[in-house]
Request: fold
Amino acid sequence: MLGFTVVAISLAADSNVEQAVRDADEQWSKVAGARDVDKTVAFYAEDAMVLPPNAPMVTSKPGIRDLWKTLLGSLSDISWKTTHVQAAKSGEMAVLVGTYQLTMKDGTKDKGKYCEVWTKQADGKWKCTTDTFSSDLPASPPTETK
Amino acid sequence: MLGFTVVAISLAADSNVEQAVRDADEQWSKVAGARDVDKTVAFYAEDAMVLPPNAPMVTSKPGIRDLWKTLLGSLSDISWKTTHVQAAKSGEMAVLVGTYQLTMKDGTKDKGKYCEVWTKQADGKWKCTTDTFSSDLPASPPTETK
Reply:
């Protein structure tokens, strides 16, 4: 019975972690969809890394803020949804994979996928520590006019 | 002393996990650099997901093999190096972030970054379960001729 109890607690912990990060990620998509730069950037840990396509890795909060300010300023809507969660048994980190869709202000639509690493912080809050995403669509040059 | 011992064991475990995944990743870069498709694909778990830029997510081993066969067939060299490792305290998963560089057969060079999730399998071997990467360079259309 002890073994069973330990397994049951472990499964419950995994399930709690998965739900916590799914909930946080859903909130994140909502604030990004509302184009709120500050609230969007607040989901990143202080030491977060963002790996955007066609640009070098960004490893500072001001750099991440600039990236989101530019992105949210150029689009009319964005949303994403997690499709896979892999939580560590120790309950302090989880990897989320999912798909996004967005519409630029000029009407151009994009869709793609992402991989986010979430880490439980010292205060118990979940923050994104690594964020990477890329389009599903064929590459187009940055200067292309539609 | 018990607390100290537990912490010491935990740190040693983290360090062992980090070294194990770094070693596996270094071997992976070598077999890819030798353009060995089978050995390269063998580093993925059966249920691995690859998130390539400008293409949909690939979630099957045959799909992943096709991706690498095309990629390794079009380049003359590729290598990568992990710069950050985040290992779960429970020791069964780790996230690696690093940079890659490659040269296509036509001489075009590319460099970029990646995020790999590694998971310890039932047989104790480490395999890549999620792999995503993107170029640091500005987007160019797929039909562009150099």
